[in-house]
Write a structure and sequence with these properties.
Blueprint lengths: L19 H12 L7 E5 L11 E5 L4 E6 L5 H16 L4 H4 L7 H18 L3 H17 L10 H18 L2 H4 L3 H21 L6 H11 L2 H4 L5 H14 L5 H12 L2
Parallel strand pairs: 1-3
Antiparallel strand pairs: 2-3
Helix pairs in contact: 1-2, 2-4, 4-6, 5-6, 6-8, 9-11, 11-12
The structure holds zinc ion.
Length: 262
């Protein structure tokens, strides 16, 4: 996530170096090999659990990566934000993270959720991060109730579907998935049912075969998740977004170009 608004906020740190959250941050910064990356961290807020408000961005004025944590109590988020930079370095493409992906439209928030699965997958190779992720993912599958709420938009359910589908199928290991397959499949089915209705309400034709194509596309994550080429990731974004039938292909390309320089 590289929200535009980060550009103008000063780099500062509101917690002390000995704070356990900052200790965790430094520990993971080293583990991920990011110690040579110039970085500023801003920790703020308490009790605000809005995941979407934490982020990492290149700050052109300070020539530093700037990480903002709105909910630094959560180990997962502290590591995840660093993971965005780790992914960019693994792809050999810092530019992947240096562009602006402005917030605020359905397309960018959907891209973000797909990108987050790449980040989490790469981080899941570190066993202790995997444990944190798996706990969250298992809890989500077991306890999350998925209902059709009219006030909740189509894009929210698409994000939910992508996160659940990619995480369950390609990030969780088979030991952790054991016994959860049926309930996960039910979630997928429920969300698909809700999405059909939401598409219909928008007068967009989206049928069973569209979902088959979408799932076939998502299944390519199995291979592309290990790529070393940022273009493969952006192509995966494009091909997935295209199948949603929500935007003109030229618009998708323009936003991806702006966001990832590809
Ligand atoms: Zn993220």
């Amino acid at each position: 996530m590289t929200p535009e608004k980060f550009k103008n906020i000063p780099l500062s740190k509101k917690i002390s170096d000995s704070d356990p959250r900052h200790v965790l941050f430094e520990k993971w910064r080293n583990r991920l090999g990011l110690q040579n990356q110039p970085m500023g961290v801003l920790y703020e807020g308490k009790g605000d659990n809005q995941f979407s408000k934490s982020g990492i961005a290149w700050h052109p004025h300070y020539n530093k990566w700037e990480i903002q944590y709105k909910y630094p109590q959560d180990d997962f988020i502290i590591i995840h934000e660093l993971g965005h930079l780790y992914l960019a370095l693994e792809l050999g493409d810092i530019g992947f993270l240096k562009h602006d992906l402005f917030e605020g439209n359905d397309l960018t928030v959907i891209v973000n959720v797909i990108n987050d699965q790449f980040v989490n997958y790469r981080l899941s190779k570190f066993g202790d991060f995997y444990e944190i992720l798996a706990k969250k993912a298992i809890d989500f599958v077991k306890n999350r109730r998925i209902n059709d709420k009219p006030e909740i938009s189509l894009s929210v359910y698409i994000r939910l579907y992508f996160q659940l589908y990619l995480q369950f199928n390609f990030i969780l290991n088979s030991k952790d998935k054991k016994g959860l397959e049926t309930i996960a499949k039910n979630h997928f089915k429920n969300i698909r049912g809700i999405l059909f209705k939401k598409y219909k309400a928008k007068n967009i034709k989206f049928f069973h075969q569209n979902f088959q194509k979408l799932d076939a596309q998502l299944n390519k994550f199995r291979v592309v998740k290990d790529t070393k080429n940022s273009q493969d990731v952006v192509t995966f974004f494009y091909d997935t977004l295209y199948l949603l039938k929500l935007w003109d292909p030229a618009f998708i390309k323009e936003i991806l170009k702006r966001g990832y320089g590809k």
